[in-house]
Amino acid sequence: MRHLITLADLKQGEIERIFAITEDLKTKYQNGLREPLLPGRVMALLFEKPSLRTRVSFEAGIINLGGHSLFLGDDVGWGSRESMADFGRVLSEYVDVVVVRTKSHEKVVELAKFCKCSVINGLTDQDHPCQALADLYTLRELTGSLAGQTLAFIGDGNNVARSLAMGCGKTGMRFALAAPKQYQFDAEFLAQLKHEAPDLDLLITTDPREAVKNASAVYTDVWTSMGQEAESAIRRQAFAAYQVNAALLKAAPADVFFMHCLPAHRGEEVTDEVIDGPASIVVAQAANRLHAQKGILAWLLGAQGQGRE
Ligand code: CP
Ligand code: NVA
């Protein structure tokens, strides 16, 4: 059974296959066709944190594909009413795929062990693979090809940054992270990255200007992620020199794109001028969450064939 917990779960050819399905489904959607590739399939969502993009794009996506969505609330008692093993074994008797947004990464890994259907990570404290796939798809759509391009991430080396770094490593892109030392990637993740993407050209620096110098896209995310609210004052201070503003974009190539997974904390990690400016592709990224989610679902559930690369 295939799961999508991190981008380490996918080979380069599989990412390309998902992009090809995404492209096909997006073109059809734009031409008014919602191809029912997954009739009768049922997707359950288990979310421990709020969501607009991930929840709605997955729910709309499975409906576009002819399937159904069940958003499960607290009353199903995940983690409280019965063991994870009993929960996962029973839930996966009813549904074809489970999308999970958890506080701790271990919880989604644990659930996947017991599910006989596919489990998709819809964000944990460590990873956001569906976001990274949609983002790389967006860049590929705008530039034609990913290989050799540099994605510069300015800010917290957290879930989104980690998934993007892994995604860059799997698609021949370069990745640059500018963050204060204590918010850079930890040794365990660096070892995993090295193992999964040995050829990744990786720059880690405390200097945002160095990171953006050759970037095709400059990406940022909130300084305080969901669940870290108690640290927000200290994080605001630590990241004060890491705001993506007009001055920083001037240090990047003239045709650079600005990217953000959203939601944004305007005035903190990014200024209004940049996020609303001509370089910004944040709405295109969010829009592509729908198409990429459909690509992932069609690929994972087999309608477009995991084996047909
Ligand atoms: N980018 C993203 O995952 O947004 P949501 O938290 O709204 O799902
Ligand atoms: N790093 C952010 C991403 C939100 C999509 C968070 O975890 O809150």
Describe what this molecule looks like in 3D:
The chain is α/β, with parallel strands linked by helices and 309 residues long. The chain folds into two domains: 7-128 and 289-300, Aspartate/ornithine carbamoyltransferase (Rossmann fold, 3-Layer(aba) Sandwich), CATH 3.40.50.1370; 129-286, 3-Layer(aba) Sandwich (Rossmann fold), CATH 3.40.50. Helices cover 42% and strands 14% of the residues. It has a five-stranded parallel β-sheet. Helix 6 links the parallel strand 5 (150-154) and strand 6 (174-178). The longest helix has 19 residues, at 12-30. The protein is globular, with a radius of gyration of 19 Å. The structure holds phosphoric acid mono(formamide)ester and norvaline. Residues 123, 158-160, 221-222, 225-226, 261 line the site of norvaline.
Write a concise synopsis of the structure shown.
The chain is of the alpha/beta class and 309 residues long. 42% of the residues lie in helices and 14% in strands.
* Termini gap: 17 Å
Number of H- or I-type helical stretches: 12
CATH-defined architecture of the largest domain? 3-Layer(aba) Sandwich
Strand order of the largest sheet: 7-6-5-8-9
Stretches where pLDDT falls below 50 for ≥5 residues?
none
State the secondary-structure class: alpha/beta
Fold-level CATH name of the largest domain? Rossmann fold
* CATH fourth-tier homologous superfamily of the largest domain: Aspartate/ornithine carbamoyltransferase
The small-molecule ligands in this entry are: phosphoric acid mono(formamide)ester, norvaline
Strand content: 5-15%
How many individual domains? 2
